[in-house]
Recover the amino acids of this structure.
DNA sequence: CTGAAAGCGCTTACAG
DNA sequence: CTGAAAGCGCTTACAG
């Protein structure tokens, strides 16, 4: 499928199609739309010479890569990209607002076969530009509700939050603190809502003073932990929105001379490899990060000519009980 | 610099140059050599059309990415690549023997601007192929002595091992265990040699039973820790070749009911962000991973027309004393 | 806003 | 083993 083919079908000349692809301004809106639609329908790809073929590249775009959490995703994407001989291009946005205006042009210039966005937004404009160049893409753990027609991959965060909180309730805890991730992120909100749902189902009142928010990193767990433990009536258990936050809570507890789980039970979320080596080994909600990454990669790289309609997939989470939880001291 | 220019200078036709670049067999050895030399000297890069310019891609090749250690390198490379608008392609070899035969062809096909190899070997064959396509490359923490003419980046590992061991000696320890990384890796051997040098300088005999080797990951620290602590005359301090191994040692100590640093002092190597959040906060040797990565990226991406001769650079390490070390119990 | 013409860098098929 | 010729996909400069 070359520029000439598209031009013929659109009833325009090759140069005009070239201009549309390169985002030149001097094209009539109606023409641009007609050409973009054909480009998309035929899955046009630039070929940089006689028989270049696809570049064999997936773009993996993070907002931050401070947590080992990101590495799990990298491992998953790398492994499935390798299976089909593709390379993985990593970039870091440092901004949850999503990729900038010229991002699509940059990745198109390197002939990327598809893009995976992690934890960011995707504007309608970026979405349209990707579609015009038929670069498939998926959002993992989107920040906010993605626009209609955007495929996404996540985990059953609500269920995870429910299971974690239920576990603490079953051990006999009644004052259970929660330190969530960024409140704007769907995955984070769902975990908090699962926590609330478990409390409400058990007839335990939800105390807003027991709910804090952070950024999924160690520091926010430490700060949130100190805050909750300074309360006049402190919690006997804390559910953290991520394993890193849980590590921060452990640190805060130790600094205050509290033993875990004797004086304070702690539950994390993610089940990073490190959770097993923490002290005490961390009870946490396992989300299959590598599988999520592999699925996103396949969605983006596999032509699957029939099923091009965008999907929203949530993979199952599972509570993993280790040694950081026990009945509260009073019992 | 186009194929036509090279052809003119080599006194051959453009198709012949094209054949050399694409590794076609039907070129006389003498011609091939002459063309390859010119290609290299002029830093020829394929341009996939009128004004494609460089692809803006750095290949970052790991043998494994299980440790958060790898993420620090990724962060450093990504940050400096971004400065010059380049993307970072990550791949994982799962083999310390280095990249396979067709690796150079694959990265050349995507027009990579340079390659950074982490912790692997680079064969003379791969080296020659990279040179023929003038793809600059650097090895970070090479496995074994790299061939002559290969640029490398590392840290002052020997000094780090010396400083860590000296610190333990100054605290009064005399039986100091060491759990090193893979004995084949230069960075690992240098740390062990620094340990030996410190002991010898202090007049403390080196006991081979106190030296173990592993793979830089948590598991090998745990296993090595248990082994050392099972000795009839166990060490009062352990120096681990990496922070992850030190975490494993902490785990082994706790499983045996030993307190750190009361019953056992532990020193790591790397100073990962996690070292600060460990319990107790880990005394460790800081190596500037992000700076090492940034330097490697600049070496590979910066044309620096004058200074093309390969360099070997070691960045300084520094002991960071936290709370996992103290005088031995007897004192 | 559009396209015929010229041009770019590269590759292929084939004659020698 | 080599290269003149033809061709590919794309872009640019410019006339209308």
């Amino acid at each position: 499928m070359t520029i000439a083919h598209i031009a013929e079908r659109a009833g325009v000349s090759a140069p005009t199609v070239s201009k549309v692809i390169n985002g030149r301004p001097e094209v009539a809106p109606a023409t641009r739309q007609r050409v973009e639609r054909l480009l998309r329908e035929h899955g046009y790809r630039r070929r940089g010479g006689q028989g270049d073929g696809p570049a064999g590249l997936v773009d993996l775009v993070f907002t931050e890569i401070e947590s080992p959490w990101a590495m799990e995703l990298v491992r998953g994407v790398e492994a499935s990209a390798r299976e089909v001989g593709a390379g993985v291009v990593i970039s870091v946005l440092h901004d949850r607002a999503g990729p900038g205006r010229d991002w699509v042009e940059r990745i198109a210039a390197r002939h990327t076969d598809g893009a995976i966005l992690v934890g960011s937004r995707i504007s309608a404009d970026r979405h349209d530009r990707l579609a015009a160049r038929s670069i498939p893409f998926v959002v993992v753990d989107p920040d906010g509700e993605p626009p209609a027609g955007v495929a996404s991959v996540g985990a059953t965060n609500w269920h995870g939050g429910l299971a974690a909180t239920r576990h603490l309730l079953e051990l006999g805890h009644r004052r259970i603190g929660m330190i969530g991730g960024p409140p704007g992120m769907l995955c984070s909100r769902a975990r908090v809502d699962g926590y609330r749902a478990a409390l409400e189902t058990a007839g335990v009142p939800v105390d807003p003073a027991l709910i804090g928010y952070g950024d999924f990193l160690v520091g926010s767990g430490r700060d949130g932990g100190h805050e909750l433990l300074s309360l006049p009536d402190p919690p006997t258990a804390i559910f953290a929105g991520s394993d890193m936050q849980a590590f921060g809570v452990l640190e805060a507890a130790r600094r205050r001379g509290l033993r875990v789980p004797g004086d304070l039970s702690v539950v994390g979320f993610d089940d990073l490899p490190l959770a097993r080596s923490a002290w005490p080994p961390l009870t946490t909600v396992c989300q299959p990060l590598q599988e999520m990454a592999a699925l996103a990669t396949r969605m983006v790289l596999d032509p699957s000519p029939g099923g091009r309609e965008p999907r929203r997939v949530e993979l199952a989470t599972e509570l993993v009980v280790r040694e950081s939880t026990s009945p509260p001291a009073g019992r």
